[in-house]
Amino acid sequence: MCRTMHMCRKLLLLNLRKILLLVLFVGTSTYTYLAFTFPYEEPNDGKMLRMLQDVRSPLEKLEDAGYNLERLQDQESPSKLVIRPEQPEEIDPLEFIFGGFEDKSVTTTPQPRTKKKAAPLAVSKQTEVATKRTAVIVMTQMRSGSTFVGEIFNQHPDAFYFFEPIWALEYNKNKAYNSTAWQLKLLEGLSKCKFEPIRDIMQFYLTTKELGVMKTCRAIDSMCDRYRNKTRKWPGRCPIPDDKFTEVLQTNCLKNKFTAIKTIRLNDITLFKPLTEDEELNFKIVQLVRDPRAIIASRLALVKNNVSVTNHLHNDVDRSEVRTVCDWMTTNMQPYRDQSEWLRKRYALVRYEDVGLDPMTTMARFYKLINIPMSRDVSKWLGSHTKKAKRMKDRKDPFGTKKDPEKTANEWRTRLSFKQVQIIQSECKEAMTLFHYKFVESHEELKNIDVSLYQKRPPQLF
């Protein structure tokens, strides 16, 4: 113990000096050892690069490792960071599953991360496409489900839809209109919203009762309704004044983003070639096919129920009619099989059975084909029309659109005998093989509805 305060201070300072000298000695010895063991070298390029990499932030390292960093705005976490591995470019599924052509120039190999600069030519091309009028036509045969498929376009709020316009040529008093030249002229006028050259045809189309345009074309009915005199007993079907007729049609047509047409009255897809090459049009084609056994069964049901739509139907399976149905399917697919350039990126081939089994996906692909944003109105309509109809009237309506897809797809199996099915299959071997419709080999297989004959097509079916 220190006897005086002075002695305690001396001892404390002495000990502190000893400690400082010891630390200095240890530090000097350590530095000398390290300097001789690891001599200093100027960093070369490789070392400098590693040094620079070491000071990068963790997010920068993830980016260089091939990850995409996306900030998602979320109510709960507004600055939530999502890290996803870099994905290679995917081939458009439309090219494989839904018609079109395989683009050989597209590769799935990941490309180096480089900043993409927008080329001036690409911008001008996009501007050019945007100025073109978009039009789509659904081409098929009678009793192939075209009314249902047409509604996928008709229900869109930006569609100007025409239901069976070729009918106005076939049944017009002027028989000269019933020709291939006028078919093309009519389709061109409808697609471009240019109605003056087809004025007479359109007046007949909009005012004839038998066709029922007002029940099937939402945009046209809305347009005509503005000119109806609701105070009269008969307000008129489409009483647009003659001096304003083409002007009103054109204005209303152009207000909508695209034109949609549905027809069962065209037999040659090559009729559309000039429209696909027209500089003013972005013209798309949907070829709709259906199991020929289902088509024939549906036509026989019309005859049985005394529903008169044409004089060419038979009350039993007719070989010549069956051949006509299947030849139409294979002949009109031939330009696609030949990969004709005029169809490239403009054509979709779809089976009615696939529409029924997966209507929402079909809708998405349709609108991707025509490059128009989808609408919730169409989704709601599909949701309410792909269930079993509640009213008996809707269930029995041969032209109704409220259908149970699975039941509709298999209904022919309960209507046709095995002998009738054999006749159809013998005349349609090529078409059924081409479109992947399964052959029925026995009466038991035909009537066993629990075993489905339809499967979703594999990605490279066509």
TrEMBL record:
Gene3D superfamilies listed in its UniProt record: P-loop containing nucleotide triphosphate hydrolases
Keywords noted in UniProt: Transferase
SUPFAM superfamilies: P-loop containing nucleoside triphosphate hydrolases
Swiss-Prot/TrEMBL GO biological process terms: N-acetylglucosamine metabolic process; sulfur compound metabolic process
Pfam family, one: Sulfotransfer_1
Stretches assigned to the Sulfotransferase domain: 134-434
Enzyme class: transferase
Extent of Basic and acidic residues compositional bias: 394-408
One of the record's GO molecular function terms: N-acetylglucosamine 6-O-sulfotransferase activity
Region described as Disordered: spans on this chain: 385-408
The enzyme's E.C. designation: 2.8.2.-
Superkingdom classification of source: Eukaryota
Assigned protein family: Belongs to the sulfotransferase 1 family.
Name the UniProt record assigns to this protein: Sulfotransferase
